[in-house]
Write a structure and sequence with these properties.
With about 350 residues, the chain is of the alpha/beta class. Helix content is about 60%, strand content about 10%. The chain contains twelve helices and seven strands. The radius of gyration is 50 Å and the shape is elongated.
């Protein structure tokens, strides 16, 4: 809605319009732009002009009452334009105020003339008239007021729509007419907002949690209560997630300690088995059994093997023999002597 003066000091600021336009593009492909303005800053109007012209949305411009001066530039952005049957379009030369040296004033005048050439080109493209005709007709220093029929006939707009006249005084100034249309539009918006609030309240009351809400204040209080409950639930979920994370960390640490303890016990078992083998308490063929006994109950296994007498292995006897004497025959001879044979 472009209602009011155009520029950083007015109600219609380029940055606001561009922001609203981008938001509207995300919500839908069709956008209606409504103009009711006596004009304002040319550069601000050109910024809005460029934003509307480059938009990817399907834009239709409605002149609800007045598109004067800089506002008429926006209407020429190349989009379809509809004007109210009692609307007005006003075109004139750029007006500015400046001060400074003669050179500075001449520089300003040159810039204004250059900017007017841009506007002449915009109006020429919009109407199909020659730039020279536009300059000669509308840039002669006078204000040129066009009725809806004249604007349509000359090509400044594409159509006319019916609109009730909010001002009965035929002597009303353009500013008074513009303000009256603005107030009527704002009143219609307030009515729509009121209806929307009623509809929304009825929709809320159709839900179980809002059936006892008598009015908007009650609904808002219930929403605040639900928001508090949601915040509490979020806090509990965060606490739960933190506890789960701590549990996972402790489980990982416990598993690491268990593996380390198991590795240490296995190392002790192997060392004990090696010692038992060295002492001749575990025959080679009983090594796996001895390992199983040590793993099952190390203390009991060590007590069991400690009670055994070291075995004499033939290989050790053979290695201990001197002079190459047959150890087996020597042993047989000892037995015979003891038996008296």
């Amino acid at each position: 809605m472009l209602y009011g003066d155009i520029g950083d000091w007015g109600a219609v600021r380029p940055e606001d319009i561009v922001r609203e336009l981008m938001s509207a593009e995300h919500e839908g492909r069709r956008i209606d732009v409504r103009i009711n303005s006596v004009g304002g800053e040319v550069y601000a109007a050109l910024a809005i002009f460029n934003a509307l012209r480059s938009s990817r949305a399907e834009i239709t411009i409605y002149i609800d009452c007045l598109a004067a001066s800089a506002a008429s530039i926006i209407a020429g952005c190349g989009r379809p334009v509809q004007i109210a049957d009692n609307g007005r379009l006003m075109i004139h030369r750029i007006r500015t105020e400046t001060f400074g040296t003669a050179d500075e004033i001449r520089t300003c005048a040159t810039e204004v003339e250059s900017l007017e050439s841009v506007l002449v080109d915009i109006y020429a493209r919009r109407t199909g008239l020659a730039p020279e005709a536009i300059r000669a007709t509308y840039f002669d220093g006078q204000d040129h007021w066009l009725t809806a029929e004249e604007a349509l006939h000359l090509g400044f707009v594409d159509g006319i729509f019916a609109a009730g006249d909010p001002v009965s005084d035929a002597a009303a100034t353009p500013r008074q007419i513009c303000d009256a249309y603005t107030q009527r539009y704002l009143n219609s918006l307030n009515t729509q907002i009121s209806k929307s609030k009623t509809t929304m309240l009825n929709q809320l009351r159709s839900r179980p949690r809002f059936t006892d809400c008598a009015d908007e204040a009650g609904a808002l209080a219930r929403i605040a209560e639900l928001e508090q409950q949601a915040a509490a639930a979020d806090a509990l979920r965060s606490e739960r997630d933190a506890l789960q994370s701590e549990r996972d960390r402790l489980q990982a640490e416990n598993e690491e300690l268990r593996q380390r303890q198991q590795q240490a016990e296995e190392a002790e078992t192997e060392q004990a088995l090696s010692d038992l083998e060295a002492r001749g308490l575990v025959p080679a063929g009983q090594k796996e059994n001895a390992r199983a006994m040590l793993r099952a109950d190390k203390a009991a296994a060590m007590a069991y093997f400690g009670a055994l007498k070291p075995g004499r292995r033939i290989v050790n006897e053979l290695e201990a023999s001197a002079g190459g004497e047959d150890a087996l025959e020597k042993r047989k001879e000892e037995v015979r002597k003891k038996l008296g044979r």
